[in-house]
Amino acid sequence: MKPIKVIIDCDPGHDDAIALLMAHRLPEIELVAVTTVCGNAPLARTTINARRIMELLGASDVPIAAGCASPLARPLVLGTADGPSGLDGSPYLPEPTVEAVPVHGVDFLAAKLREAEEPIVLVPTGPLTNIGMLVLKYPELLSKIEKVVLMGGAFYRRSEIITPTEFNIFCDPEAAEIVLASGLDITMVGLDVTMHVLVEEDEFAAIEKIDTPLSRVVFDWLKFYEKLHRGQMGIGGALHDPLALAVVVDPTLIETREAHVSIDRTGTHTFGATVADYFKLNGLEPNVKLASQVNSAKFFEMLYRSLED
Ligand code: RIB
Ligand code: CA
User: Fold this and answer.
1) Which residues have CB under 8 Å from 70's CB, separation 6+?
2) Which of 14, 24, 240, 260 is catalytic?
3) Using an 8 Å Cβ cutoff, are 24 and 4 in contact?
4) What domains lie within the chain, and their CATH numbers?
5) Is residue 159 over pLDDT 70?
6) Is 260 a catalytic residue?
7) Which of ligand 1's atoms lies nearest the C-alpha of 166?
8) What's the rounded Cα separation, in Å, for the pair 293 and 194?
9) pTM for the complete prediction?
10) Which residue of 14, 16, 149, 228 sits with most ligand 1 atoms within 8 Å of its CB, as the best mutation to test the pocket?
């Protein structure tokens, strides 16, 4: 089976870092390029973090290009899950030996799509600013995108009240609207499923047992990440971005529902919320497949596999 060509657009970020690691380590994926965006930290931080992570992985041959430093139409509100550096608590990471590509991330994304012999899968794991700008600036290249599997969103389900606004969409709702209206094949891997792939005691024990250099780094990343989640929500660290990447490897990890998803950009208490219309009540055709169920055990098996020597 030929590896799936993937470009990850990310804002590392502890969970972004693990998604990059899985993309590099799993044979099912060929990581063609990485682009960075503001979000968990300012762009300069997310970019140096991406470069150091790829250096650590021995993947400095994968080109990295920095994209947008602020959302399309509003000031940047930084995420709070990763500390000011975007990778606080990280064990030693090597200094990068390769410069970022001296091209804006959006233009670099376009160049990689243009030169690709077959369509590429895009995996955005941060705010959708770069992808929104790609859609606006290079509509002729959308046919070179096989599908978008993004980490983002949180949805009503039956009688449940609104789940919390999800950061990637909240941070740049205008970009999200542009991407959702693009006609691309979009799978949204949102909090409904990512909050079920939590690193708790058993998962820490399993990662510790693998005992490889990479598993030890991931263990340290997750110890910091889990501490913050524990403090904020009383739960373990949710592996948001790694699940989005894992879904590219094995789409059966999740069940999806088609829906028309809109973004609330005027609400006081619901600003940035993603609202799913499953039944065409607003007369609009579905624009996404949103993840509704996840096989957590199967996901963790894939994560552990990526950490083994
Ligand atoms: O809401 C989770 C998302 O926000 C993840 O992508 C995490 O890295 C943060 O960017
Ligand atoms: Ca992220």
Assistant:
1) 38, 76, 129
2) 240
3) no
4) 4-307 (3.90.245.10)
5) no
6) no
7) 1
8) 9
9) 0.96
10) 16
